[in-house]
Amino acid sequence: MTKPVHIAFEKFEYTIPLTKIVPQRPLVPEHRQTAKYKQIFQSIKAIGIIEALVVYPKSPDEYLLLDGHTRLGVLKELGISEARCTLATDDEAYTYNKHLNCISTVGQYFMILKAIENGVPEKRLAEALNVDIKNIRLKRNMLNGICPEAILVLRNQKVAVGVFPVLRKMKPVRQVEAAEHMTAGATYSVTFAKALLAVTKPELLVKPTPKPRIAANSVAAQEMLGMETDRLVKDLKTIEESYGKDVLTLTVCSGFIKKMLADSQVGSYLSLHHSDLLEAVRTAIAD
Question: The ParB-like N-terminal domain covers which part of the protein (predicted)?
Answer without folding.
Answer: 14-106
